[in-house]
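Predict structure. Input: S9 family peptidase, 762 residues.
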Amino acid sequence: MLLMDVQDLPSIADLSQPELRIAGLRLNPRTNGPSRVSYSTALKLKRLSGGAEIPVKGLPTPAKISEVSWSPDDSKIAFALTTEATAAAGGQIQLWVLDVATATARQIPGVRLNSVFGTAYRWLPDNQTLIARTVPANRGQVPDATAAPTGPIVQENVGRTAAARTYQDLLKNPSDEKIFDYYATTQLLKVSLDGKTQPLGQPGVIQGASPSPDGKYILVETRHRPYSYQLTVGSFPVKVDVLDLSGNLVKSIADLPLADNVPTSFDAVPTGPRNHDWRDDAPATIYWVEAQDGGDPKKVAAVRDKVVTMAAPFTTPMDLVDLHLRFRGITWGDNSTALVNGYRWADRKVMTWVINPRTKMPPTVLFERSSQDTYKDPGTPYQKHNAAGRYVLALGGSDNQTIYLLGEGASPEGNRPFVDQLNLKTRKTERWWRSEAPYYEVPVDILDVNKRLLVTRRESVEQAPNYFLRDAKKKNKLTALTNFPNPYPALGTLKKQVLQYKRADGLPLTANLYLPPNYKKTDGPLPTLLEAYPAEYKDKSTAGQVKGSPYTFTRLTWGSPIFWVTQGYAVLQNTSIPIVGEGDAEPNDTYIEQLVAGAKAAIEEGQRLGVVDAKRVGVMGHSYGAFMTANLLAHSNLFKAGIARSGAYNRTLTPFGFQAEERTYWEAPQVYDKMSPFTAANKIKTPILLIHGEADNNSGTFPIQSERFYNALKGHGATARYVVLPFESHGYAARESIMHMLWEMDSWLNKYVKEAPAPPAN
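Output follows.
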């Protein structure tokens, strides 16, 4: 087991490092990698069979570790290590390797990773070689961004539909294109652990380089011009090639154009081949998917997607399977077994089929349900890595037709994770094990399917999460692997209760109720903070299902409302606010009515229990929860104050869809207008605190959303405060930012909720 100490709450100085926002990416030009990374600062090894934790030797102090990956035989671990920029030299992302037997790490010299597209290396199956995307040597100076323009910036569309959702950080001009090319251009290297390197092919904007399972070929995806000023790099033209390990071109698989005419439906896809990858259980077989409906789910089509394979020497494509739903992934097993997943957004349908990769036999249905019906979720098929380090189905039984399923186990009594085994021929299921109260225990890995030996993570209301070795054949045999202490000992044991109640129309709802540690019923009703994040559903039966578990340990993340139990508040956390649209109706057709009804039901339940002071309730939310908060203040009198962080308030600024709404503004203008709290700014009389990160990168939640909303509120005499956190993105990270955010929220709640006049005594 590898234990990684994770850096938390970096300083604002860390966040204020240079950041290049370009082509939908955010890069640190000093390192040629992503600008926001959650680094590990130390590594330790521990044998599952017992023994002490072993600190890894050879690491610099401090260390910034990311992109961690075990070798196929588990004898080594590769990782990226980012160095700080100095006056003498820029920073860089180095390639390191850890020898597990000696717990010693060392740098592979002369390799500067280019991580603008994520993890920049892959292991070959020989456990001695890696394929790395690197910064080209002698690439020269950064193009001058201040050069005088040579002409206007022109975009043109001639009579074809090219709708695009709302994106940020896009290319804006030819200068941006040159700068993007400078940082995104990669040289592939074959890197041996002894330090030898060999360039493979020519430099290019290489987004992916994946070795074949047999280690003889590399599947390379290279983005190229013409670029777009409306779309991110993921839609740029892409060339898909196969190279050998000397860097020679073996086969050009596809050259796909700019994907600028994809319909805005959530399960729309580009035309032509897509999702190129290796078949994990074969030596060197590529597969891809091709839409058969023009990529438009609104077209009538008996077949939506077709999966195609092509084995080395890559001359003859073979049709593998036709799907009447959109392809959602494939899990390879062996020559006779694979599982294919498909989905349809309109009714949230998901299906899993069993196929035989050797034949063109029709697929057989294994699972079929609504993606929102968590009670019927059969779990995720367990995969183990093979000798090539590729993850494939763990197949057992005398005929290799038994699979193993790890699931959350949603139920009316809360989540109870489980492990099942399922025979694909007989469809008989046997349950190995299921989490039991008063614990919440999650299966993490299966070490031995025959011995039914598991690694799990177990926690309870009073016990912090820790890892255990569980023998599923012996119910009570449990061996602790870690001993992480309670990270919040000063708080004591937080009182958590999972409330189950009903909306006025009878729809079941849930919320987590937290009360101050020393609270007694005789203390009477408390000022209350309600937090929620609405979710859309296509039927009431799934919308009313119980979420979460009453036995989880309470984690305090930076954005949590639970902090306020320490300040004498009752907290309604993760309050379910379902927005349901059954049949031909869309959920958002009655968004406001259902929103208010859901919030009202939660407050009434807390009032019925005698713990919520209904005349002193505040509401908060982040992102779509901020949108919810503003709407609740505009369309109800339930709250004394609201806190809205990093939200979008004017839906006309996201005209090609938002959240789970796939209709465009022009298809449903009344929905967009009614749902936009910006259009109801004149109705908001309740005090509202707006907080936004000035570098918000989330699609649709441009900081201008809060800026314009605040101006509208101010112009109508509302009590409002607008706080901009420098250098923060959609989620906040810096210690200084979070501490200030907490101070702002606490001051707001104290002034407008806690200190509001208490209700008269009965």
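Helices lie at 12-15, 174-184, 540-543, 591-608, 624-635, 669-675, 703-715, 735-754.
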